[in-house]
Every structure is written in structure tokens, then in C-alpha cells.
Amino acid sequence: GENVEQHPSTLSVQEGDSAVIKCTYSDSASNYFPWYKQELGKGPQLIIDIRSNVGEKKDQRIAVTLNKTAKHFSLHITETQPEDSAVYFCAASTGGSQGNLIFGKGTKLSVKP
Amino acid sequence: DAGVIQSPRHEVTEMGQEVTLRCKPISGHNSLFWYRQTMMRGLELLIYFNNNVPIDDSGMPEDRFSAKMPNASFSTLKIQPSEPRDSAVYFCASSYIGGGTEAFFGQGTRLTVV
What we know:
A: mainly beta, B: 7-stranded mixed beta sheet, 4-stranded antiparallel beta sheet
């Protein structure tokens, strides 16, 4: 089955710097790659997603890149702010369901003012 | 829409007792997912339903776990009997297959088995 590896497990940056989180997946049939943000005591919330027919997607300060050949995808957050501090999860899915997700172990991002 | 609603938010029970977690998906969504989150194993998919039918329950850890979806607006996850190692946060999520929508997660139920 699918396996998703995520690095780093913790990341600390200064406010205004960029943050990059990387994930690899094992199943070449995976075609949907979302990123979720989880704040303390809350459920994961989608921040951006990408499908296998696209190499890059951007939404304001957040961007995701996908390399299907190498089976890895990355989250890029620019101009980080203290409110970006949270745990971020990457995930992969095969088939048509956006909820049948295999998650990475998460990255705890801390943005220092 | 109020989003995915889970109850209770917190549950403390004694080992051996039956525990029932509840979920109300977003109206109009046709898929529902139960996840478990622990420090050691992260977020794990337990089971998912499509149009109220269980599609894949390969993530259900043991026969002590069962899930039902009697109608489009309600699902339960039951653990009987509960054990301390079942302590975790259980999330329910819903989405609409075919509509390209994301999976929306509820706030979770924190289960503690003592």
C-alpha cells in the first residue's frame, strides 16, 4: 500500500523567512496530494492541494510543487507569520476519493516573532 | 453549514466499557471517513463509506472496532470492549466524490480509556 514520508518533523523559522516541508510517496498510482494544517485542539484543515496532472500550484503565500517522476512533493510558505505556527501534514490518495488519504507523520512549524 | 459535527468532544471511560463516537457529515456529501490520531502512528484511516456503504475497512485495528452509517447524515464508531491502547483522538471527515471537493474534518473526539 501507499506510504508517505514527511520531513522535517520540526521546523523553526524567523518571522518573514520561508519554510519548506518535503514529502515522498511510494505508490505511483497516487494522483491527489493535499496539505493540511492542524492547530492545537482542532481537526486538520486543507490549505492547498495538487493533482498529478499539475506540477505546481500557488495560493498567495503558499505553494506546492509535485515531481511525479521522483514521487515527491513539497510545501513552500513564504513570508511566514506567527499565525502560521501549527502542525502541517502532507497526504496522498489514489482513486477518486479526496478523503481516502494516507498521511505523513506531520511537521511542527514554529514561527518566531 | 456547521461543518462536520462530532460528539462527544471528550470521552473518558474505563477499560472494558463500550464507547460510541458519533459523526454528522456535511449535508450533501456522499463520503465519510473515520481517522484515528496518535503520537506514535499519526493520522490513520480506519474506514470509509460511500453512499452509506462501507468501502474499505482494512484500517480497522481489531474486531472490537465497528462502524455504521445508517443514513446519509449520521455515522457511529463503536469500540467494545475498550482498552487503554485505544486512547487517541478520533476524527470524522466527509467529502463529495465526483465533485472534486476536499475532505472536511470535524473537531475530533478525544478518547481516554483508563
